[in-house]
Write a structure and sequence with these properties.
Layout lengths: L1 H14 L7 E6 L8 E5 L4 E2 L6 H14 L14 E2 L2 E2 L8 H20 L3 H19 L12 E3 L8 E4 L5 E3 L5 E3 L19 H10 L9 H19 L5 H16 L14 H4 L13
Antiparallel strand pairs: 1-2, 3-7, 4-5, 6-9, 7-8
Helix pairs in contact: 2-5, 3-4, 3-6, 4-7, 6-7
Length: 289
C-alpha cells in the first residue's frame, strides 16, 4: 500500500512539484512483530479545514491531468496502488473501457466478500460491467477519437487535500494513482463522503479548464458510472455503509437508460444523493472523526 502511495506521489511530484509534498521514501521497520511500514515525505504545515478556491484548485488539477504522460501510452500503473486498504486493479490496457471494467469488478469483488451476497446487486454489477461500460466508454476511443491516459490522484476528495499555510497553494496527499480518463478523478465528487467537492462550482470550473470528452452530452452519465468505484470501494471498507445502496441505485439508473434488464429494482430518485444532497461524515464509525 505504501509503495503505491510513494510511487503515485513521485509521478505527481515529477509532473507538478508544487502540488504534492515531496516524497522521500517508504519501507518496513526492522522490528519483526508486529509488521509495520512507513512512508516519508516533506513536511508541510497545511490548513485541512478550509475549502479551496474552486477556480484555482481545479486549474491546478486540470494542469496535472493535461501535462502528465503515461510511460506506455496505456491506462494503468507500474505498481499496485490502493484506495484505503483496498487494492486497485491497475494492469496496463490500451482500452479505457477494458481497464475500467477490471477496476470496477475488482472493487465489486472486495465489496461482496466483505458485505455479503445480494442477488439483485450482483446482477446489476454484471449488466454494468458487460453492457453499460462498453456503451458509455468505448465511444471515447472510436470514430477517430484519442483518449489521453492522465495521471489521477485516485482518491480525491477534500479529506486528501490541504492548503499550504505558507504559500496559500492547494496540495494533494494520500494518493493512490493510475493513468486514467481524466474525468475519472471527478467520480469521487459525486459520492456522499464528499461534501466540499459536491458543489457544482468545482465540476463547472474544472470543465472550463479541461472540457468534457466527446460525446460531451454523456458526461453526467459517465460521472455517475465513475462514482460507482468510489462508492463501492467505500462500502467495502465500511461494511454496512449506505453507499452500497447508493451504488446499486445508480447502477439501476444506468441499466434502465442503456441496457434494461429484468431482476433488478427501478431507479429511485428519492434516494439519489446527487438530487437530495445527502451526505455522510466519512470514517465516523472508524473513530477517526
Amino acid at each position: 500500500m505504501l509503495e503505491g502511495e510513494f510511487e503515485s506521489s513521485k509521478v505527481i511530484y515529477d509532473a507538478t512539484s508544487d502540488f504534492i509534498p515531496e516524497p522521500f521514501g517508504f519501507g518496513k521497520y526492522k522490528v519483526p512483530n508486529p509488521a509495520a511500514y512507513f512512508y516519508l515525505s516533506e513536511f508541510v504545515n497545511m490548513d485541512v479545514t478550509s475549502a479551496p478556491d474552486p477556480a484555482g484548485f481545479t486549474s491546478r488539477l486540470a494542469h496535472l491531468h493535461k501535462i502528465s504522460r503515461s510511460p506506455t501510452d496505456k491506462f494503468g500503473f507500474h505498481v499496485q496502488t490502493c484506495d484505503g486498504n483496498r487494492a486497485h486493479v491497475v494492469d496496463w490496457q490500451e482500452s479505457w473501457a477494458i481497464f475500467f471494467r477490471s477496476l470496477f469488478l475488482g472493487v465489486c469483488e472486495l465489496d461482496i466478500k466483505r458485505n455479503g451476497s445480494w442477488r439483485e446487486y450482483e446482477r446489476a454489477i454484471q449488466q454494468v460491467a458487460w453492457k453499460v461500460i462498453p456503451r458509455l466508454l468505448e465511444p471515447l476511443q472510436t470514430e477517430g477519437r484519442y483518449l489521453k491516459p492522465c495521471i489521477i490522484h485516485g482518491d480525491l476528495w477534500e479529506g486528501n487535500m490541504g492548503i499550504d499555510k505558507k504559500t496559500g497553494d492547494t496540495l494533494l496527499f494520500d494518493a493512490g494513482s493510475y493513468y486514467a480518463h481524466n474525468e475519472m478523478e471527478l467520480g469521487h465528487w459525486r459520492c456522499e463522503f464528499s461534501s466540499v467537492f459536491r458543489s457544482a462550482s468545482y465540476k463547472d470550473h474544472y470543465l472550463r479548464h479541461y472540457p468534457a470528452a466527446e460525446p460531451a452530452d454523456e458526461f453526467d452519465d459517465r460521472n455517475r458510472l465513475y462514482s460507482l468505484k468510489g462508492a463501492i470501494n467505500y462500502s467495502a471498507g465500511h461494511p454496512g455503509s449506505i453507499l452500497r445502496n447508493t451504488a446499486y441505485n445508480n447502477m439501476c439508473y444506468l441499466c434502465e437508460k442503456y441496457a434494461p434488464i429484468d431482476g433488478i429494482d427501478k431507479y429511485d430518485p428519492r434516494i439519489d444523493p446527487s438530487l437530495t444532497g445527502a451526505r455522510i461524515v466519512p470514517h465516523l464509525a472508524d473513530g477517526l472523526i
